[in-house]
Design a protein that fits this description.
Largest sheet: none
Number of helices: 7
Helix content: over 70%
Mean pLDDT: 89
Shape: rod-shaped
Low-confidence stretches: none
Oligomer: single chain
Structural class: mainly alpha
Radius of gyration: 29 Å
């Protein structure tokens, strides 16, 4: 009987040790996953913060471009000069020599979306991050059209000049209105993500 009790005790300790080892191993893996998820979130926060700062610089400039286009839209001297030399647009309207130095990035979000650890992030965080990046993608859909328009051989041709300036103004307006919405989402993200 003593031998049976001794064997049962040993069996109990072996089973207990194995179960404890499994539980500890699972907890260690879970904690490691949580740390990796926190790291992913910190990278997203850095990216969102950088994008927010960049947009804070570009949005006023883009609004200024729209304002200049509005004021020059019916200016016959400007249109005449534009037809003669397309660089008039850059001298009078696009004063920084570029529409955007760079555009917002989404590398951290792309990595996080495909990572299984994203399930460890808070729902509210994921929702606002998703809204930010979706709006960001939508915001700059017009940029290739703008570039194509600016590079068109007949951009400032007499028969197309007014129409192209009007189209250019509308495309820039579209970008600005979407940037304003993006900025509002970025402000939400700033609060929720504690940037």
């Amino acid at each position: 009987m003593k031998s049976i009790l001794k064997n049962v005790k040993q069996l109990f300790f072996v089973v207990f040790s194995v179960v404890l080892g499994i539980l500890l191993s699972e907890r260690i893996e879970e904690r490691k996953s949580e740390r990796e998820a926190e790291f992913l979130l910190s990278k997203i926060k850095l990216e969102v913060s950088g994008n927010r700062k960049m947009l804070a610089q570009w949005v006023p400039y883009h609004k200024e471009i729209v304002h200049r286009l509005d004021s020059l839209h019916d200016n016959e001297t400007f249109i005449k000069n534009f037809i003669e030399d397309a660089s008039t647009l850059y001298e009078e309207v696009i004063t920084r020599g570029t529409l955007m130095g760079r555009s917002p990035t989404n590398d951290a979000w792309d990595i996080a979306k495909s990572h299984p650890l994203i399930v460890h992030l808070e729902y509210e965080d994921l929702l606002i991050i998703s809204k930010v990046y979706n709006q960001q993608a939508i915001t700059y859909n017009s940029v290739p059209k703008i570039v194509e328009l600016l590079l068109a051989v007949d951009f400032n041709a007499e028969e197309n000049a007014r129409k192209n300036l009007h189209l250019f103004r509308n495309l820039i307006r579209e970008v600005v209105s979407r940037e304003i919405q993006l900025m509002s989402y970025l402000e939400e993200a700033k609060v929720i993500l504690e940037l």
